[in-house]
Amino acid sequence: MAGVIDTSEFRKGLKIEIDGEPFEIVEFQHVKPGKGSAFVRTVYRSLMSGRQLEKNFKSGDKVGRPDIEEKDMQYLYSQGDEYHFMENKTFEQTFVSEKVLGEAKNYLKENLPCQVLFFNGKAIGLTLPNSVELKVVKCDPGVRGDTVSGASKPATLESGYVVNVPLFINEGDVLKIDTRDGKYLTRTATA
Question: Helix (H, G, I), strand (E, B), or coil: what is residue 101?
């Protein structure tokens, strides 16, 4: 633990440590009841498991500051269920397990810049850019005359991820995908 944080410093996105585990504050609210002492109603998410917890902290309580470091890295390749990344400054390589990556693995392609989150020297998470460009490797052709408004079809991208796309998308097109919700945004290049 690298110090302490007072409840008056709580804000959305703040990283805290409770019982040796790192958390991120999702929501907080300072409450001053008419009777009794003030407290902070907090919702926080585990950076290791992703579970969300709620807790009321008394005003003036202190929690730990986690030993967290975020490094700018570049995705290199995957081998089995391990995904290898390289730090941009030192060229040091590390791997992140498929379990830690979660849905982020759907958007990885070689040389993609991202940020890897480390807790006590161990990789525990990944932050991707808000959107990535991926090539369509498998897609059924659109049928002429099939012009229903808002119609879509599945397309398999180079990362193996399947996304619903408009009927005019073809194999070889490059698409911009939102990494926050996994949806198609636009076509950036045609085959």
Answer: helix
Longest CA–CA span in the chain (Å) reads: 70
Predicted confidence (pLDDT) per residue in 151-162, tens digit:
788 999 998 899
Cα–Cα distance between 85 and 95 in angstroms, integer? 6
Average pLDDT, the chain: 86
| Residues of the chain above pLDDT 90, percent | 22
Span 175-189, average pLDDT:
89
Which positions ≥6 away from 78 have C-beta within 8 Å?
84, 105, 108
- CA contacts within 13 A on the Cβ side of 112: 26
List CB contacts of 49: < 8 A, sequence separation 6 or more.
Answer: none
Give the integer Cα–Cα distance in Å for 61 and 4. 10
* CB-count burial class (<10 Å; 0-12, 13-18, 19+) for 36: exposed
| CA distances (Å), origin 107, targets 50, 156, 170 | 19, 12, 19
Distance between CA atoms of 173 and 184, rounded to whole angstroms? 12
pTM, rounded to two decimals? 0.70
